[in-house]
Amino acid sequence: MGVGGQLPLRAGERGALLLRSSEVPASVTESFILSGYRCPGYSFGQCLVSAFQPTNETGNFWTHFLAVFVFAFHFLEQFWSDGWGSRELLDPFYYPLWSYFLGVCVLLVASSVAHLFNSMSLAIREICFYVDYGTISAYTVGSSLAYFYYIHPPGAPALAPGATNLSSGPWEGGEGIGWLAAWVGQTGACFEALYVPAACFIALFCTLACCITRHRWPRHRYLIRTLVFLLPFLVVSIPVFRKLWWAGHGGHGTGHFFMRHCFWLLASGIFNVSKIPERFSPGKFDIWGHSHQWFHCCTFMSILEELHMIRGEIRALGTGPTPPPLPLLLPRAPTFLATFGVMLLLFLLLAAVVGWFGVGAYAHQKDSERRKGD
Fold first, then answer.
1. Angle of the 58-81 helix axis to the 291-316 helix axis, nearest 10
2. Mean pLDDT, residues 80-100
3. Which of 78, 166, 296, 345 is deepest in the core (most CB within 10 A)?
4. Using alpha carbons only, what angle is made at residue 313 by residues 143 and 261, rounded to the nearest 5 degrees?
């Protein structure tokens, strides 16, 4: 029942009412958001119109939808501002960069779509966010490809056989930790073989774990999801950690941009878990300014800092108006299968995970409807 004991107006009607948290299913509500909920059962067209109406999902949609165009501008701007125009955009050298671009854009678009169309039905709502979790994982793999080809080569210098100290590295008097240098040298080949596959495996694991949290541990779901995605961050960032270890400050601004990348990721995690500011004033930030909107803004800022870091590394590899031949730029030449092929395979696997949980969501909805009918 709606306000005053009347049925709520249909979403498409003039002056349609938004609902309070007590008037929608518990699975739709968000902590400390008391109003602004759309009536479940919106049509596709009604969802599109709702992007221009003040609901508690409007800001969530626009903060990532507009970010797609901002990111695309910053991404393409580098090709003329850094003097990269002489190299063809589809040169294999740029395959990892385009894979990263694909991962980011799919993440931002999927997040926007999830927040815009999740009111069509309870099952579609679940599927929207399953897709959202999957694209976050795909973004991490896109980042791993860019890190592997552009940051790893200069960040992991080979050690001479029998090296026993780090005196040539950033740490003065490093003889006491020579065992670590020897260990890093011995594990280099293992890293080369396992880094990208490990990133893909962890992406699948994170998607599974986040999908499960929509049915279990409801009180701690935001904390669990945040901690789950800490794992791919740590693994994918290994090339950066190695570079910072060997180069100290991480030349070409790597350390600077990476610290800012981490800062924005930390801020996004804090907003996602703490539910600030709506926690301290429930109802005041239902439409604008609630934590999920700040979470979106912070995650996008972290992506921009990451892009700047990758740009600096590519610039340092020698690209410019007269770049050297490809084999001189990278120790390993990117191939279509090793970059776009990896992303395509990952998308197929993630689609299978989303499909599995989506079938379960539809089955659960049908079962609920049947029980109500009885």
1. 10
2. 76
3. 296
4. 50
Q: Which residue has the tokens 């800092």?
A: 305
Query: Of 66, 55, 45, 44, which Cα lies nearest the Cα of 112?
Result: 66
Question: Furthest-apart CA pair in the chain: how many Å?
Answer: 81
Chain mean position to CA 181: 32
Question: Is the CB of residue 350 less than 8 Å from the CB of residue 138?
Answer: yes
Q: Which runs of consecutive H residues, i.e. helices, occur in 9-57?
A: 44-50
CA of 59: how far to CAs of 55, 111, 171, 287, in Å?
Answer: 8, 12, 47, 7
The pLDDT value given to residue 4: 38
Between 66 and 157, where is the model more confident?
66
The DSSP result for 182-232, as a single string, is HHHHHTHHHHHHHHHHHHHHHHHHHHHHHHHTTTS-GGGHHHHHHHHTHHH
DSSP per-residue string spanning 249-283: T-TTTHHHHHHHHHHHHHHHHHHHHH-TTTTTSTT
